[in-house]
Amino acid sequence: MIDVARLAGVSGQTVSRVSNGFPGVTEETRARVLEAMTELGYRPNSAARAMRRGEFRTIGVVTFTLSTTGNVHTLDAIARSAAQEGYAVTLLPVAVPTQDEVRGAFSRLGELAVDAIIAIMEVHLLDASSLVPPPNVRVVVADSHAGDRYSVVDTDQAGGARTAVDHLLALGHRTVWHLAGPEESFAAQGREGAWRATLEAAGRDVPTALRGDWTAESGYRAGLLLAEQPDCTAVFAANDQMALGVMRALHEKGRSIPGDVSVIGFDDIPDASSFFPPLTTIHQDFDQVGQLLVESALRQIRTGSGEQGTTLVPTHLVVRESTGAPSAGR
User: Fold this and answer.
1) For position 148, what pLDDT does the model report?
2) Does residue 132 have a pLDDT over 80?
3) pLDDT at site 327
4) Is the pTM above the cut of 0.85?
5) What domains can be seen in the chain, in order of their start residue?
6) What is the enclosing helix (H) or strand (E) of 251?
């Protein structure tokens, strides 16, 4: 900075004002300083400026996996929303979903100098009282019931599941079978609970839920079992990938869709309309989830105070050709 000031014939304070974009410098002087910076190859030290200001303009993201549709689309939305606000994103995947690993990730992000942490949690690991974020680092959480301690943004899991079951019952199905997600998943638990409660409220039999791991392969294995159930006319899969596997198994076993069995998913992934037949599903607005996560993080950064409470993002039903009325007599 001293060298730039000497070459431009100005004070060090003027160089500082130009490099930080502050007003109060004439255009002629600003141009001379910028020319001197270019000639000397000078670049302002953003890390040093961040240390002085106590603001790093970086948001840390902790997640367990990038293999699920929800995590990938949510992360994409977070990155785009943060970039629009001039913030970078530091991603820290956690290999093993344990409280010790999450605690270590929070500590590591503190060392990496972030202003806030967004935790994309599919398991209940934010409930430990010993889990403490770094000092002055705000926390926002996706997919959790920790709204009493953190700002939480989540898809309306229960509302979406109710809509799926109501759609199938309205078509005339006596009950709805369910392929649930992993037991430890908060989203899967919400969808399964709402499926069960909706059937009970309608006075319908509640079949034993099958369980998958979000993959099409696990859906295929469950679909082979469902195909052997003569009274199964409707299936609600907890995500579209598992619904795809169910549909493959039903096709292989000679069960027509939706003539013999209606299938509905959850997510509305881009390929859902290209399934055979095109998949009826519950649409999640991952863009809005990511945007609201970033908005909450920035609001806490700017106000210097934490937030609590849960914001639910609505879902909606997308009807395609995989659902229909049950065959006569079924």
Assistant:
1) 75
2) no
3) 85
4) no
5) 2-44 (1.10.260.40), 54-155+286-314 (3.40.50.2300), 157-284 (3.40.50.2300)
6) helix 240-252
